[in-house]
Amino acid sequence: MSRTTRLRRGLLAATLTLALPALAPVAAAGKAESAFAAVDPMIGTGGDGHTFPGATVPFGMIQLSPDTAMPDFKHAYKWAAGYQYGDSSILGFSHTHFSGSGHSDLGDVLVMPIAGDVKLDPGSPDQPGSGYRSRFDHKSEKAEAGYYAVTLADYGVRAELTAGARVGWHRYTFPKGKPAHLLLDLRPSIYDYDGKVLWSSLRVRADGTVTGGRTTRGWAPGRQLYFAMRFNQPLTSRSLKNRETAVPYRGFAGPGNRAEDVDAISGRALEGVFDFGDLAKPLVVKVAVSSVSEDNAVANLDKDGAGFDFDARRAEAREAWEKALSTVDVQAPAGTRKTFYTALYHAMIAPGLSMDVNGQYRGPDNQVHTAKGFDFYSTWSLWDVYRAQQPLMTLLEPAKSNDFVSSLIAAQQASPFGILPVWAYQGMETWCMIGYHAVPVIADAYMKGIRGYDADAALKAMVSSATYGPYGGLDDYMKLGYVPIDRQPEAASKTVEYAFDDWSLAQMAKAMGKDDVAATFMKRAGNWKNSFDTKTGFLRARKSDGSYREPFDPSSAGYGTDYTEGNAWQYSWYVPQDVAGLMEALGGKDAFVKKLDQVFDAKVDPKSFAHVEDITGLIGWYAHGNEPSHQVAYLYDYAGQPWKTQERLVKIMQTQYTPTPTGLVGNDDLGQMSAWYIFTSLGFYPVAPGSNQYVIGRPFVEKATLKLAGGKQFTVSADHLDAKHPYVGKVTLNGKPLDRTFIRHEEIVAGGELHFSMQETPAKDWGSAPGAQPYSMSDPAR
Predict the structure, then answer these.
(1) CA distances from 270 to 168, 195, 200, 346, 422 (A)
(2) DSSP assignment, residue 468?
(3) What are the C-alpha distances in Å from 354 to residues 112, 290, 376?
(4) What local confidence, expressed as pLDDT, does residue 73 receive?
(5) Which pLDDT value is given to residue 782?
(6) What is d(CA 729, CA 348) in angstroms, rounded to the nearest whole number?
(7) Average pLDDT over the chain, rounded to whole?
(8) Model-level pTM?
């Protein structure tokens, strides 16, 4: 979601004989580095990847990371994760971040270690010494899963960060001979540096614990975040400052500062300066957060933050990541392993824990609730993650999937509107993007046998979301069978995305024996046809009188058009539940394949998307940097030509991922771009979550073993996997020929081996026989 339009430099020419890192021969000698060592958190921190390099644990509440800029909202896109690899100075270290989002917010509880004189404003990166920010060099950085370190050049301070589930840990080694200080700035937000804080508080408690919190008017209006902070060394002095009446600075003006020598302070522009004198040993700082209260933050710190052993906490973070990453064992060249395991790392950051040690969390009604029998998770980029990231978790983290579904149900029950989350974080709703895509997340989990929640409550929540008329034109959608463009923007996209969500709801209802509900939503699943113009061969938006909007330009994209973050060339393929029906609407298999070829082979000037942040990674009209295109390469399978899917996947894998800071061509979107890479590397992809089918592409790793629930293992292997053998010759499942172009979820979780034999030329007979193609609702026999 929200990506800057560009073609990444260095796109390779479209030939299948080019050397591809993923296809290079595996070295015969030497042992591959561990999965943990293969992770490089710097991947995606440059360009439009929007990932952060700092410390976190799998699905944790804390994302402790450096911030290089927190500009005003109009310029915040590039810094949606707070950090850009191309920057040369660090503003400080804050405790909450999105991983790969296309929108900005968070950056809570910013701290900066300072040696020597203290400046109270960040200053300009173009004017070193003008504020408290410090220059740094990438050579001094070290980033690994759960740990980050850097030397702040202007202060000579070595900064180290690690994290637990609810606590962020800092260790600062100061130079001798200079007084050590820690600056706490409650003004900054990645949404906007200042002016977005509605209220904040800061105090030093009798035992030396620093607590506080703030309410912000950011992406989720009225969001509350509290913290508790402790140090391993005593304070020599401290001052609390309200800068709201400070010298003129970006929205605040007036004479002087207020209230320094007090124990507590409140206002809209607070800072604290904590002094430690000349330190003989490193300063360790630990910080817990809570969306509920200061007291809950203290409780989180008491329970999850005992002691001050930084190295022990770093070891625990490493252990957590080693366990999470061990769910897949991959044999591949070093570069491919780095990309693969970093993708797995990024896919396991969100959704994040959003619940305190006492079970309390803040819901979308901005009230405090208590989870019973599950852990509450938030940070849901649902327009993105339902496609592959959440299906990946059903395979690798089914217990977490139970908690994820329970969290979605709990959020719906606390919603003032009675609907499931759309794009939520820390329990609060933003209403960003379209669709009701929590529905396929729940349906996919249910269909795969993940049932540790109240299924009736889940179905009720799904139906409530799918029938809430005021949301996104649903009232018209239910009456007309489509969303009218004269009443709702991006109406064509909304129609087809609603239709897929309806289909997934119908699958779950049918499996539960709720035939009336299933029939209602199965009928709605066919609504995509009401916005598909068979005369032009494109998805188009209709007006409320039934006519298509004119004039029509299939290349047109951007807000105000018929589509969300795309155009007709990209969105006309979004019928994952009924590809056979789409094929028929386009005039049959030959016409379908011809038009697919036009998508990939078109000569498209990337400047035509200069006004749209979101469309990146162009291969013809195909835009890999944005989610509506993610299933398109796999659609040749439905036409009995899987060898063309294999060709297209080679080009995508060649050009869209590299093990570098600019190695993600678009926003990672909380792990969706990464999950696409993982599935594609394994040789299959969940085109239609809820179908329990994965569409077969081709593998890009020599061997991978999935460690599944119940001690089961599923292995994907390939022979002749190199650049000279780009095509699948044959496939076997547990030693028996597999002639269909899909594999079932049940076959994977039962354990076994999927083996690919690769060859030089296309195997045009494999997967072409009737019945070999994946599921479509127009042809449900499969």
Answers:
(1) 21, 12, 7, 33, 33
(2) -
(3) 25, 8, 6
(4) 65
(5) 55
(6) 34
(7) 93
(8) 0.95
